[in-house]
Amino acid sequence: MARSYTVIIIGSGVSGIAAATKLLKNKFNNFIILEAENRIGGRIQTLPFGDGHIELGAQWIHGEEGNVVYNMASDQNLVSDRRETMQQFMNSTFVTSSGCEIKSDRLREYIKVAYSVFDDSPKDDLERFMSLGELFHKRTENILIDSEELPLKQFINWCQHYQNSYNGSDNWFEASAINIDTYKTCPGYPAISWKSKGFSTIIDLLQVWKYTAPVN
């Protein structure tokens, strides 16, 4: 039997579920959520893997102040207390795809240069309309790296993978450099981990309301 709804929510990602939760909190349940995929969560997709889990989408909580995800999770004691510093990351061991450790004395220096490329806003209109990949190559073209000391191709490939994971892109030639200016961050630690289940925990928190106010 056909029926009508007062509100139609498109998509069951975190925004759609949050909208539904808001309606339920206000004792309104004459709505329907339309979702094209066979799962909920949108770009949040946590899957079990061995004794743990892997994230195919959102991973870290970026920032603390003014971050509704952090506020919800920390109130429930769901965020990790571990805070890795950039220095700890820089002291990590880097290996090639064949398993050989890269022992270059200048490796950390090169990594710092790679990070600094994206610290500064685009300098002019030319840079503003570049992709992140184009901006990286432009700003590093005069840096000399001994290919015997450091496998250059693999190093640049690592830089691209790092930026892709940070920006949520598949290819840094598809991510715009203008976002360096427009992306707003929340103050606080920039990469907070979850204690156990992963980012899908936020979906679970939002869905708690469905048990007390079921949708018609």
UniProtKB/TrEMBL annotation:
Lineage: superkingdom: Eukaryota
Residues in Amine oxidase domain copies: 14-95
GO molecular function: polyamine oxidase activity
Pfam families from the UniProt entry: Amino_oxidase
Name of the featured protein: Putative polyamine oxidase 5
Taxonomic source organism: Sipha flava (yellow sugarcane aphid)
